[in-house]
Amino acid sequence: MATMEWIAACREELYALREELHRCPELSHQEYRTSALIEKQLRAWGIPVLDFHLETGVVAKISGGHSGKLLVLREDIDALPIQENTGLPFSSQVSGVCHACGHDIHTTALLGAARLLSEHRDQLHGDVLLVFQCAEESFDGAASMLAHGIFSAQTPNAVVGFHCAPQLQVGKVEISAGIREASCDSLTLTVVGKGGHGAHPDECIDPVVMSAGLLMQLQTLVSRRNKATDPVVLTFGEIHGGSAPNVIPDQVLLRGTLRTFDNRVRMAHLAALEDLCTGFCRALGGTCTVTVEKSLPPLINSPDICQQLLTSAQTVLGEDCLGSESAPSMGSDDFSCMLEACGNHGAQYLVGTGLENDPATRMGLHVAENIFPSQAIEPAAATLVQFALDYLN
Ligand SMILES: [Zn+2]
Ligand SMILES: [Zn+2]
After folding, report:
1. Domain check: are 90 and 128 in the same one?
2. How many angstroms does the Cα of residue 43 sit away from the middle of ligand 2?
3. Which of 54, 64, 177, 255 could bond 306 through an S-S bridge, CB–CB 3.0 to 4.6 Å?
């Protein structure tokens, strides 16, 4: 039976699963119910769940009937701190939390793919590791699962996964080789001076004025130090300092994000940023410490995997399934950490979730009103299954 027909045969079950996941969304690192539901389902289908002492997230393995490569299929399972406003009958029952990034579709499609691959494991020349990844939205789920050794027994030959794309029609995919998403480093700058009475700045070292100057200087890294052909974004979205208009505080915290398309550019900017922060604040009599956390490399898709993905997608979705190519994004996905751990061999592709006659399905990711239609599960699961069959065989 062809892959699409296999998937269609378990449509009702997958839609019901999706609705259950959608009703009970959980934030990053709190995906307890979601993980339990995934585990229960995998066990019901006879798919062995591996124990890596994970707090949340699930890893399972399908051992093929013949020896061969190890392929990782990875999808993320967490939700966002957004109040759902879709009007769906199976809307989130958790106040202020919803699946506004489509990760319930991701989870369900991977479950569907797991079921079908398991049923046909005798045909597989190699193994499939299923990674239901926690905490993508907080950018540290991939790193934490890798730290638990999910790839320690054997370095996988490749990792593949998809993300929902409201800008693409259901039934279409986007598969693009090369740079797709930016690196991301979360920065915390602690600017320390000496607090005191606002009437006597001469007796203080004012961290508010220091921070204001520093913030403007930091933008010159992008506009004056960086080569214009290398995209870089440096944004500070948080400033915390002070408690009264007439008191100079001891310190100010600035929190921001650095995005690049190239690890060399990224490292050069991190070094220059640290130099500027320390030097600038020292010149004004204060200090500045820089902390870098939750670092993600850029997401770069392998050309050979993309070529295979395209062939597999065309097998299940038809020759004209390829949507128009979008520009690489300065956004980030910690799929890039999984890629790096697989020797930079793999790809993340996009699966359309937009419906022509329903504008509510085309509003965008992280939008409270956006509807991800369940019909997108079938093309998503089918492409995962077909790719696994083609890649391993
Ligand atoms: Zn998201
Ligand atoms: Zn997402």
Report:
1. yes
2. 26
3. 177
